[in-house]
Amino acid sequence: MLRYLACCCALCVVLASHCCSASSVRIKAVVDGKAITSLDVSRRTKANAFFYRTAHAGSDQAEVLQSLVDESVLELEAKELGISVGKHELEAEASKMFSVLGVCDGLSIGECVVQNGLDHKSVEDHLRSRVVWSKILATRVAPFLAVSDSDVENYVDEARSTGLETVLDMEQVFVPFKAGSVLDSVLSELNKGVALDKIAARYREHAVYADHAVGVTASAFLPDVKVSLVRANVGQVIGPIRIDRGYLVLKLLNKVKVSKGFLNSSASIKRVSVASSDHENVLRVMKGRGANCESFDGIAKNMGLDATSLDVRIGDLASKLQFMLSNAELGEVLSTTAAGEGSGAEGGKIDLIVLCSISRGGDPTAEEAAGVIRVTAGVHRGRRVFTGNTLKARPAISVVRESVFNVLRAHIPIEGARVCDIFCGSGAFSFEALSRGAEHASLVDIHLPNLQLVRRTADSLGVGHRMTVLCCDVNKLPLADRSYDLAFVDPPYEETSLVDISLNAILSMRWCQAGSVVVLRIKKGAKVSIPDRYELLTRKSYCGSEILFMCTLSND
Questions:
Q1: Between the CA of residue 474 and those of 30, 216, 424, 489, 497, what are the distances in Å?
Q2: Looking at per-residue confidence, does 72 or 468 come out higher?
Q3: Of the candidates 49, 87, 363, 428, which lies 20 to 30 Å from 332 by C-alpha distance?
Q4: What is the pTM of this model?
Q5: How far apart are CA 521 and CA 539, in angstroms?
Q6: Taking Cα atoms as reference points, which of 158, 171, 258 lies closest to residue 214?
Q7: Residue 528 confidence (pLDDT)
Q8: pLDDT more than 70, % of the chain
Q9: CB 376 within 8 A of CB 398
Q10: SS3 helix, strand, coil % of the chain, rounded to 5?
């Protein structure tokens, strides 16, 4: 302890000797032996005032000090998880931040701080913390990233089997081992019904992660966790479950059982959306006028409502809606409030639907289990990506695609990103990105039938205005009219020469720029040539595939 105090005193003396003012530099906080001084706070305050241009950012030193403490905690967590940040990652993050804030356009970090009289280390530390936080988010879900051959086989076996499927809605909280002291508090607050966003904010400095998981099948979990979830009552908290690097706590919000055969069925429905305040009156009128499939459109029109017709796969719908339809009569008008879908509807809207027909699909075959592609997350979660017999490609199954996007969270924000998809096949990766908030996707494939399926999915999801398709050979890739933040490259396994060709093409034709992230999918064990302008970030093996996550470098 005396030696620690002596070091702190020495630190203060050294800092004070370099301070131009007469006042001494004071230690404001200490995080795991690292001192945060008044000089650090002053330098960050000046940087915040420049970048964020608000009086609050420039004057609230208590808030600035807290942000420095948070950054130190993140650095400790990153060190424990083995996370590092490269120079190119800092420059890429700086470019994004400068662009959003409208400052230092086209400048490097060093040029920006010199021109504006800022402290280089303070600005760099802030940028590093932004990158580290994104990587920590991905690391927290690391137990779910490693998909082995047996995982994939179990996934297909589960889909093939008969009987009922348990579908769950949950809240989930991850608490790192290092933050074990707050585990009891998190459990208590989940049991008391404290909102997830409040839990996340309250324990942010402990690197606690919280989110919702909706429409998850119990079969996706390890056997002992699956048993606990199947036996649990709604509202019950399960855990803590010890996993890699921490504890997982689950709170069951909803649970339904639906026949697997019914999940594979298709339904024809008609729908109108009404304000939640009007839905009871509209439903009463609909039923009073004997609304059914034939009369639904006319009655809706007379009430000033627009009805739409939809052909859907039952397995693509929300869990409670699946259950409601499994017990519905043909021609019966239903309210989604009965399925628990109305209370949280955007803009206070509730759907009234009528079930017109249903085509029983039976239990999925092994081929169907492997061939049914659905979006794994985001606003289109659970919606189908069409494949069919005309698809000349090998789309990645859902557990692989979800794992890929979990890895990407450490390297690039998907929301607002521009995405290109070379050898797009079904377009599954692009639709995953659009569902997660990507701004635009450009899909390229030489096979026209593939792109026709892409268009079908785009029309089904209503995202056609956010994407373009191009039918061409990668050797004839045109000069891009825009650069892309994220690229998926998935050439045929047997044509390894296309790896080098396509990676060079997206650079020479300016589809990618320095800092773009490129995801390359190849056959496991394949010998391929990677151009020099690519830096490997990480690689993952999934069943028979190997996926390389790379970053494009500048021409310097």
A1: 55, 38, 11, 11, 12
A2: 468
A3: 363
A4: 0.42
A5: 10
A6: 171
A7: 86
A8: 74
A9: yes
A10: 45, 25, 30
- 445: part of which helix (H) or strand (E)? strand 440-445
The Cα–Cα gap between 131 and 133 comes to 5
Q: Name the token pair of 60.
A: 């609230």
Please give the CATH topology (third level) of the domain spanning 28-140. Triger factor/SurA peptide-binding fold (1.10.4030)
> CB 349: neighbour CB atoms within 10 A?
16
Q: Measured between alpha carbons, how far is residue 494 from residues 175, 385, 498, 528, 548 in Å?
A: 44, 25, 9, 11, 17
State the span(s) of the chain assigned CATH 3.10.50.40.
162-260
Architecture of domain 373-552: 3-Layer(aba) Sandwich (3.40)
Architecture category of domain 265-359 in CATH: Roll (3.10)
Round to the nearest angstrom and report the end-to-end CA distance of the chain.
49
Burial 67-79 (b: 16+ CB within 10 A, else e): bbbbbbbbbebbe
pLDDT one-digit tens code per residue, 430-459: 999 998 889 999 999 988 888 888 988 888
Tokens, residue 370: 């492997």
Q: Which of the given ranges, 211-215, 510-514, 521-525, has the highest pLDDT on average?
A: 510-514
Q: Report the pLDDT averaged over residues 375-400.
A: 66
Q: Are strands 534-542 and 545-552 parallel, antiparallel or unpaired?
A: antiparallel
How many other CB atoms are found less than 10 A from the CB of residue 421?
28
Domain with CATH 1.10.4030 in the chain: 28-140
Whether residue 128 contacts residue 90, with contact meaning beta carbons closer than 8 Å, is answered with yes
Contact between 324 and 334 under an 8 Å Cβ cutoff? The reply is yes
Cα–Cα dist 487/418, whole Å: 9
Domain 162-260 has CATH 3.10.50.40: yes
The token pair at 304 is 């000033």
Residue 121 CA to its chain's centroid (Å): 31
At 471, list the tokens: 């039918």
Q: Count helices and strands (H / E) in the chain.
A: 20, 19
In 3D, which of 57, 64, 71 has the Cα closest to residue 38?
Answer: 64
Residue 264: which residues within 8 A CB-CB, separation 6 or more? 313, 314, 315, 361, 362, 363, 364, 368, 372
Span of 12-16, 209-213, 309-313, 372-376 with lowest mean pLDDT: 12-16
Three-class SS state of 174: strand
Q: What value, to the nearest 5°, has the Cα angle with vertex 151 and ends 146 and 155? A: 130
DSSP string, 230-255: HHPPTT-EEEEEEETTEEEEEEEEEE
Alpha-carbon separation of residue 269 from 87, 307, 309 (angstroms): 54, 10, 6
In Å, what is the CA distance from 422 to each residue of 75, 111, 210, 228, 503? 36, 36, 34, 42, 10
Helix axes 398-408, 120-140, angle to 10 degrees: 160
